[in-house]
Amino acid sequence: MAPEVEFDTPQQIRWAIIGPGRAGARFAQGLHAVEAASLRAIWGRNPDRAESFARKFAVPQTSPTLEQLLAADIDAIYVATHPDSHAEICLQALAAGKHVLCEKPATLNQSQLTQVLAAARLHDRLFMEAMKPPFFPLYRRLRGHLQSDPIGPVGFVRAGHADATLPPDYPLQFASLGGGGIMGIGPYEAFLALDWLGELKRVQTMGRVNVAGVDAFALFQTEHEHGMAQLHTGLDLSSRGDALLSAPRGYVIIHANWWNPARATIHYLDGRHVELHEPFVAGGFNYETTHFCQLLRDGLRESPVIPHSLSLSMARLLETVRTTLGVRFPGE
User: For the chain, what are the domain ranges?
Assistant: First the structure.
């Protein structure tokens, strides 16, 4: 009789969400598709909204205060509030011994992020900025395809998105919340440029600031270790959210919306066109969450895909663009 095969059961990761808004809802949706992970608690400044969120996603516990949530029997926190409160909440969560996945941008500026990363090291906790594109099946397949059938080193990146349909009460419209297009869509663009072109060397910026004190439109050109990028964001114009990667022997179009990538076309100089199509499931947040959970099980304190150095570079790029236009947030 053959011996029974024993399978290791993955460590269950118990999650809580801080901020029952749009990002929190997508995280909760995606968590259902993550193996050995569960949502145990929710906290938000608006108790009624938190209770409604808990009912919708079957969250067993709503905490009346942030302190009570952080004292709960949970492993990891997903910070889904507006950027103005990211640093403060992350610092509290890390000090309470919780691992932290923080929605992008991780903080308002590079100084705040430096403090958060120091706290993660001090308390020996995992901290990762929630930058979802590199974990999507399409993005991973594109990376693999370009290794086996290359177009040469990417030397130019073009990406951007402007959306004039956002209502006046949308959070990106408010400087007090850390709003503006640069902070809203800009983190994805900063990631794309840094991921393909390497470390930032210099930035050139043009744009407009509206009466609310946030950038209404921004065009920023960046020079990197391995090439250049042209990026844009906007709240009062509209544009297509695709991306271009240019190389000596061809180019790639990641079709809109590229930061939720599902389809790409590779154009080769020999006339070939290769179509990649990898639909995503469960809203897409599940892929970065799966990665984070595995890091925890492996005892790691930093992601090799979104390392702290990359988050610092993204923060530096966004802060340079924003302050060049004169956009500063309360307390800076």
Answer: 13-132, 134-280+306-324
Give 13-132's CATH code, choosing from 3.60.15.10, 3.40.50.720, 3.30.530.20, 3.30.420.40: 3.40.50.720
Q: Mean per-residue pLDDT for 260-288? A: 98
Residue 9 confidence (pLDDT): 79
Confidence of residue 222 (pLDDT cuts 50, 70, 90): very high
- DSSP 8-state class, residue 229: E
Length of the chain: 332
Query: Is 134-280+306-324 the same fold as 13-132?
Result: no
- The 3-state secondary structure of 299-325 reads CCCCCCCCCHHHHHHHHHHHHHHHHHC
CA-based nearest residue to 18, from 119, 110, 89, 94: 89
pLDDT tier at 5, thresholds 50, 70, 90: very low
Backbone angles phi, psi at 36, to 5 degrees: 55, 45
By C-alpha distance, which of 85, 84, 63, 83 is closest to 74? 63
Domain spanning 134-280+306-324: which CATH class is it, in words? Answer: alpha beta
Q: 3-state class of 61 per DSSP?
A: strand
Q: Which residue has the tokens 């309360």?
A: 330
Residue 2 has pLDDT above 70, yes or no: no
Q: Residue 115, Cβ neighbours under 10 Å: how many?
A: 15
